[in-house]
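Structure, all two chains, one model.
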Amino acid sequence: MAFNLDIFCKSTLEDTYSSACFGEKFKWLFHQGDVDPTYLDWLISAWGWTITVAIISLFLAMFFGIIIGTLRTLETQKDQNKLWISCIVFLSNTWVEIFRNIPVLVQVFLWYHVIPVFLPILKTCPSFLLVSFALGFFTSARIAEQVKAGITSLPKVQRMASKALGLSVTQTYRYVLLPMALRVIIPPMTSEAMNIVKNSAVAFAVSVSELTLFAMQTQEETSRGIEMYLAVTMLYSLTALMVNRLMNWIERTTQIPGYLNSLKIEKLV
Amino acid sequence: MNLDLSFYTWNLVEHYLIKGLVFSLELTVVATVGGMVFGTCLALMRISPIKLISTPASIYVNVMRSIPLVMVILWFFLLVPSLIGRSIGAELSAYVTFIAFESAFFCEIIRSGILSIPKGQSDASMALGMTFQQNMQYIILPQAFRNMVPIVMTQVIILFQDTSLVYAIGAYDLLKGFEIAGKNYGRPIEAYLLAAMVYFIICFSLSRLVKWLESSHQR
């Protein structure tokens, strides 16, 4: 089995090798049909799709995860008038259980095949968006768990103190609980963000042209599986590493001096 | 849109689902057992003070954890036949992949379990003149495994969900069973809905079991 990277400079349509390898992509973008893309061009665009899906789902997951996770920690009371709070808590718990206990691939199929039947507006949605919805909601359940854990890890007196100061429930969360809790959960969020990049691989199942589908298709087209898989694997690792660095940077810039993690980091520096 | 629920019959279960469900469960059990065995070995390698032993183990674990499971499945499906010279089929390939992949995850769980045992325990066993193997076998691992049960169970639930990814190489698992049934009966929507419900019921009951184990463990 010869190891040959030339394959990336090969045109995807004809049996020719491009000397420029990658630069041709721009010509291909602007004058469609003039130059055929090479496999390297295809690889880069597949990487772009992976990142696109990951970013959209990360935003969805953060948005819903933080809201649902916060709602789950609302204090329930036995008062008849406050029954709706129990309802909200119950509904958000149900949300988490549903999205956590169905495999992400099944959720992708649900979004792609089933939900558009009930919500016809989704029929016009491109499949990469549907995959992002599936992945985003799946991860939102996991993030909601982390947010809940973060809020409950705070000392109980903080909630009591803000109540004693006359803050409303919204104010308590906005100014007291969430600023602390969201910082506490950055490390588990980092691994969730890296998981999103990895889980975006399920998009292959509905033919989004991302890295995994690229690997599967080019392996069949060129029978140069090793080179293709290696390139894809390295890009996944690189993306996960980038996410990791980015989250560490966020952790460092948002830390409150003298509290929790900042103590550790200051000691190291 | 009308759902045709008459599609849910015993015939469907018998001809399409049992086979897939059995494979998914088998894969889960084999990967858990194999993953625990190799994961323990990897964890022991990782905590070794000898660099020559610990470095390969940590490289293996970190590589496995940084690439998507689908890619690992594809890698093995491509590599194993070219290494041993003949095709081994999607199902067997799935077993190998899942053991290899899960052992990296179980390694991390076991390693943190071992590290959570107070240092005094191994100091004491060393003072009693136990060898490394005796120390691990009689003192550290039994305690570590007991503490790990809830985390391992959670990982098993994730593992069961992940078995659906063998879709990539066309192995006949639970999801594939539903897909084929949906296509054959011309009712894909009902099939996917039922698939979601079946997965949900299994995983939800397992996660309740974990919660119960956790609370009975703390008592």
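Chain A touches chain B at residues 1, 97-98, 100-107, 109-110, 113-114, 117-118, 194, 198-202, 204-205, 212, 215-216, 219, 225-226, 229, 232-233, 236-237, 240-241 (CB under 8 Å).
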